[in-house]
Description:
By secondary structure, this protein is α/β, with parallel strands linked by helices. The protein has 14 helices and 13 strands. The protein has a domain of 207 residues: Rossmann fold (3-Layer(aba) Sandwich). A six-stranded mixed β-sheet has the order 4-5-13-10-11-12, sandwiched between helices. A hairpin with a 5-residue loop joins strand 1 and strand 2. The longest helix is centred in the middle third of the chain and has 15 residues. It is globular. It starts with a strand and ends with a helix.
Amino acid sequence: MYISNLACVACGKKLLPGLNYNCPDCGGILTVEYHYERIDKDKLRRDLERPIESIWQYKALLPIENETNIVSLREGATPLLELGNLGEEYGFESVMVKDETRNPTGSFKDRPTCVGISKAIELGVETVTIASSGNAAAAVAGYSAKAGIKSFVFVPESTPLGKVCQALTYGARIIKVKGNYSNSFKLALEATKKYNWVNLTSTFLNPYTLEGDKTVAYELYYQLNGEVPDYVVVPIGAGPLLHGILKGYRELEALGFIRKTPAMVGVQAERCSPIVQAYESNSQTVKSSEIGSTIASGIADPLIGYEQDGTLTLKAICESKGIAVSVSEEEIADAVHELGSKEGLYAEPTGATCWAGYKKLLKENRITGDDSAVLMLTGHGLKQPLAGSAQDEEIPVVVPNLSALEEQIDL
Length: 411
């Protein structure tokens, strides 16, 4: 296609688009660059303005050079849903949810994973690995099964059973690692170096996976008829989804399709919020943090050993004139219940933080009800049923007659 090179975001060094994880000179994060001047803009506009089939209709802006290497389960094309009932209750008019739970394995991770798997196939590698808190593990396992290659998945020992079972069903080899997510990250990285696997960990480690994240921006361009929302609200651990969406919008701006980019809002759990801590202290760099137990397991990332990932996400938030905000465990649980009971959306706690963060900013008047916003609902509730939710309440059992029924219901 139109891939040009890899470039270091820190020192600017350029590399050929092969299998590289960090800059060999400074250890900085690598990003994919393209020959934008060679792209047929008329064709790209037609692709952007036609109904969405999958992320691969935007292949001119994706890093696969031979489309025969593409591995797809029809990821992307997720719906954009208006929060009408919650809007009436809280007084906003134009807030929508990008429902990423509709992806093949149930989360947004299918976007970066399918690009990473396709690139691994293109590079001739037959084994991939990942460190994951759950959703990316399922995605890598599923797409590896589709591609017919091996996958080794490293997860924290506390990873929800539903996510582990999903990856096992796809045929992955699961390795549970004691301690927090950063321990899984470290072990997967060591195995990658020793066994020459392709590492698809969805931090900023693999430059190709981020390219799948940016396709959200292309889909929103179509779904919003070329309009750009004032805010895009994203649950963040290391933050590649947030950074990727902004990159997608920046590309659309550079190519002349839009005139502005949205302000990016990153939401973290209070118990693990290194990026928010840096934002609130007006620091330009992010430090790793001790992790507390949080129900938002998908963003429980203390960034130990790869703090530069958090710094890059913080930079994206600040450059876009966005906001970083943290939410409590109670706010997250309330968000799960409100999305379900008011809008019929079943989100895992991590995914529901987008609503918790938006609602908090609305109450604090840091966002107004007149601002348009898109909330990224990143993962399905079946991935991690919330303890203490309605499903744990005692459900009455009645004998099969109406009299017994009427004793239990309020007509």
